[in-house]
Amino acid sequence: MDPLLPGTSLRGPVELSNCDREPIHIPATIQAFGCMVVVRMADRRIVSASENVSHWLSDFQPSWLGKTLDQTLPTLGSLLDQVAQAREGKLIRRDELALGESGLTVSAHHCDGLGFFELESRDIGSEGQPADLVGRVFAGLENRELQELYQRMIELIREFTGFDRVMLYQFHEDDHGSVIAEAKCEEQEAYLGLHYPAGDIPVPARRLYELNWIRTLADVHADAIPMLPGRVAVTGDDEADDSLRPINMTYSQLRAISPIHLEYLRNMKVGASMSISILSGGRLWGLVACHHRTPKVLSPSQRDACELAGSVLSTYLTSRRQEAVLKRQVGIRERITSEVSKLANVDDFLTSMENAAPWMSDLLDADGFVYCTGERQIRWGETVDAPRVGEIVAALEQQDRQSVLYTDRISGWIPAAKEYEDRVAGLLVIRMGQRDGGLLLFFRKPYAKTIQWAGDPNKTVTDESGRLSPRKSFEQFTQEVTGTSRPWSATDRETADTLLSTLNSVIVEQAARVQRINRELRQLNADLDAFAYAASHDLKEPLRGIHHYIYLLEEAGTHGDQAFHRSLRGLKQLVERMSDLLDGLLRFSRAGRQDLWWEEFTLQEVVGQAQDILFAGSQPDHVDIQIESAGPLNGDFACIREVLTNLISNAIKYNDQETVEIRIGTQDVRNSPLKAHPELQSNVVYVRDNGIGIEPAHQQQVFEIFRRLHERQEYGGGSGAGLTIVRRIVERHNGRLAVESDGKLGTTIHFGWEPKA
């Protein structure tokens, strides 16, 4: 059973107050323009037939109930086999079956364990071919605007079917409908532009329209024909009352119409009707409603043509509407992307929101905007004051944690909003981030509108028994609506979703940037601590020595020239020491400030320039530098050259072998100690030497500024800034470093960075 269709019959008469609960798919009656035979699929036995079946099949006997098709109507047996193979509700129609009567069409389907055979006249004189209608419709629809297309479609269907009036009826988001195109007889009153309340087509009726492309009502004044019996056993246990259930006529073409709907049509002075469903994404978008002032029924072939037209038109119209929507969405996305890219370059998100307020409001056709986070608010355009915004935020806290909420009448949600509904009436809310990303509030001014109803939608009629019945007048009724804004359309809401996801990406990007900046600040603070230590200790030490030698120079006059020259040499050494320290600080500072210039280069090129800087074309004989493997690199050439210059210099300086051996190469990250960082790919370089090595306990300390593991006079001195500069440059490339050494012989330093796409 479909969940949107009521499962049990109503107790008492059907009236306006309960028609939305009427199980219209199990009426136990059919219309009089045909007959019906119902067969249980499990055992092929006839379980019910319409009271008028003998009028259509003169041989049919009441005693046939309970007997199989093979015993009674063997011609239908082969058709039942085809029906069993089809999906539920799939209609199979046959004109050529020999049933002892001429000019009959049999339509068959199965539903809820029962097989249905519906028989009606085949009026050859009025038949039309499906291709006739579909071909003519599409020949006239190409290259037309949607509204023009709707009108042309209605005119062609009226011409094909011969109905007095044909309308295209579109459902709105609140399920009420309006006539958006109409073709009629000249003397008839126009319904174009009129609105109809949602209750005119209750939920069960809308669901049946979704399940069936076409619905026919041949004569609103004709009596319905009962099914005998009206309840049957689907399981085969015909004796047990609790196994009997109503016959599910969801897909039946002959299914009788609700008495409330019949009364509604009679009040409209309609004698017959037919509806063609227009679906969009499986949901009911609208109806082609056909009305005739006298009884009328199309032949099965004509209905087939209309059904095919409804199916094809649904696909075509959906495609056209989606094309228009997609075109607008592309424009919206391009604008959002363009504007939001500017926000990403602003560190202060509040400032960026203030700058973005005009274009975001324009994007959503809003008249005012508020961004609030915590106690702070940014406002633009027509809004409410801060306390009122606080009331809205408090009310939002009571709502579900949906990302986008909207209303065209704030006062319907917050009663206090009536005080300002003359200024703002509509609200769309976007919740930023997972929790505390802030709220974007978009306001719309009130929009007084006039709705033309087909009769007063709130007016009902009570008969002598007190029963509520449909309105009897469909004369134009004008309703003035105030205190609401223009509604937020589906496109508006999709735009809000797109804006939300894009802004969230900016927030994530800014959070990552803040995290990176904080990480760099922590490193800078550590470096500053080291610098403070160097400034207070390493730099003061030469100053103390200089002060001492100045004193000695002053006394040298009394001790002779030898003491003078000795003091002068000491002073010169201390000045050189201070110069080295200051040079190291300068190089370290530049390594953290300069912009990176990404380019492609080879290892041979960068190693060659590093050698030129170190040796000026005269490499010492005891130094052996070889490139073992060389692949292409992507990075800042000058920075990588600085790294290699420092590493080669250290490999030579901290080496007590007769021949200094230095091996340099590139390697795949998977084959290196940096394999935990696959993003480095093949942008990994190693420098290996045969020097004194670095104890494992000291392999991180050597990268601290001015940190030396030996006495100043050992291994040629130095400032202790070289490896710190190496670390800083690699980190500027978002890279990684690793040291391999047993502390006894040789060191290999690996460094790598992610190549820039």
Question: What is the strand and helix layout of this fold?
Answer:
Elements: E1 29-30, E2 34-40, E3 45-50, H1 53-56, H2 69-72, H3 75-85, E4 92-94, E5 104-111, E6 114-121, H4 130-139, H5 146-161, E7 165-171, E8 177-183, E9 195-196, H6 203-211, E10 214-217, E11 225-228, E12 231-233, E13 244-246, H7 259-267, E14 272-280, E15 283-292, H8 300-343, H9 349-363, E16 368-373, E17 376-381, H10 386-396, E18 404-407, E19 426-431, E20 439-444, E21 449-454, E22 461-462, E23 468-469, E24 476-481, H11 490-538, H12 540-556, H13 561-593, E25 598-602, H14 603-615, E26 623-629, E27 632-636, H15 637-653, E28 660-667, E29 684-689, H16 722-732, E30 736-740, E31 747-752
Parallel strand pairs: 26-28
Antiparallel strand pairs: 1-11, 2-3, 2-6, 3-11, 4-5, 5-6, 7-8, 7-15, 8-9, 10-14, 12-13, 14-15, 16-17, 16-20, 18-19, 19-20, 21-24, 22-23, 25-27, 28-29, 29-31, 30-31
Helix pairs in contact: 4-8, 8-9, 8-11, 12-13, 13-16, 14-15, 15-16
Structure write-up:
With 757 residues, the chain is of the alpha+beta class. Among the domains are: 355-446, 2-Layer Sandwich (Beta-Lactamase); 489-581, Helix Hairpins (Orthogonal Bundle), CATH 1.10.287; 594-752, 2-Layer Sandwich (Heat Shock Protein 90). It is built from 16 helices and 31 strands. The strands form eight sheets. Strands 1-11-3-2-6-5-4 form a seven-stranded antiparallel β-sheet. Strand 22 (461-462) and strand 23 form a beta hairpin. The longest helix has 49 residues, at 490-538. The protein is elongated, with a radius of gyration of 44 Å. It starts with 28 loop residues before the first strand and ends in a 5-residue tail after the last strand. The model is unreliable at 6-19 and 461-469 (pLDDT under 50). It catalyses: ATP + protein L-histidine = ADP + protein N-phospho-L-histidine. In the N-terminal section; belongs to the phytochrome family. It comes from Roseiconus nitratireducens.
